[in-house]
Amino acid sequence: MQLRDYRTSILLGITFTILLSTFWYMPQLAFIIFISLLLQLLLLPPVNYLNKKLPRSLAAGIVLVAFVSLTFLLLALVSSSFVPTFSRFITDFPQLTEKVQNIPLLQESEFLNAELDNVWAELKSTSVDALKSSLTVLLSLFNKFIDMVIILFVTFYLLKDGEEIKQYLATRFPQKDTGRVLNLFNRILSALRIYICSQLVICCITAVIVFLYFSLRNLPYASVFAMVSGICEFIPVLGPTVASAFGILLTATVDPFIALQTAGFYLLLTQVNHNFIYPTMIGKSLNLHPIAIILGIILGGELLGAPGMFLAVPFIVICKLVIEDIYEHRLRQLENKKNSRWLAQKHPET
């Protein structure tokens, strides 16, 4: 085996290892770049459409401004229902914890009671610390605002010059493999676009369905449960399980029979999402086993916390596609060598 035959594969492996490791060594920078990339993938179709009639920079600016405006409008609409309900939920939280701990089934389990006590204690201490350190919270919000401004600027330039950036990066690899590298980049970007768009749609559908269920049943905190369910859908497999447990536990404080019905509702919703909606929207393009997703989410949570759990599936998709590309290239190289030997034996030089 000659090393130069696999130079591009080695460079790809090293490059993506370094890029992914930046989330560990420089998490803030890497997170800004990755979120900007996801936004670029989300907004690219309307920019391409407008670019047929307008300069690309103008098309990118119009789409980005429209996206930010729509986001603020949706936040305002959601907040009008969510903020009052969430405030009431926080006020009622101590009484809810007592009701949960007084559920007969939980009273009989010392282990569950101990775990619940730990969870409630952590939540209470977190709330108290947040209230005591209001200045720190304000500084943190300011930093997040700066991050959002940077993300918007990076997204704009990715929308404007993304194709040139991709071409430039591909030309940094050996010239004979430029097409291969471009194809790999396109496969990664296509898979990420499918993933982020599908996740957003599933999150919105889940939040609306949960809100309608709790509203129609006249159950309290409908918008809180809807928000929790929608956000948790961003963490496949584990997220919906946590949201379901949260909803079932707190509806059990109203009526155990309603909690049983809520459990059936969440079970049906999860099965429909992950057996019909999720496969239909994502199809077989990602082709990830649930065990790989679960282990990736756990590892991401251990390394980076909540952002790591959110980014686990995109990470796995990128690693999977890079490994597949390297493996397929090796198979092609072996096949070419085999064919070369066969031709040499069939037509020996005279």
From TrEMBL:
Topological type in the membrane: Multi-pass membrane protein
Transmembrane segments: 12-38, 58-78, 141-159, 192-214, 221-239, 245-269
Keyword Nucleus: no
UniProt keyword annotations, A-Z: Cell membrane, Membrane, Transmembrane, Transmembrane helix, Transport
Entry GO CC: plasma membrane
Gene Ontology biological process terms, A to Z: transmembrane transport
Pfam families referenced in this protein's UniProt entry, alphabetically: AI-2E_transport
Domain of life: Bacteria
Subcellular location: Cell membrane
Record-linked PANTHER family: PERMEASE PERM-RELATED, TRANSMEMBRANE PROTEIN
Family recorded in the similarity comment: Belongs to the autoinducer-2 exporter (AI-2E) (TC 2.A.86) family.
Protein name (Swiss-Prot/TrEMBL): AI-2E family transporter
Taxonomic classification: Bacteria, Bacillati, Bacillota, Negativicutes, Selenomonadales
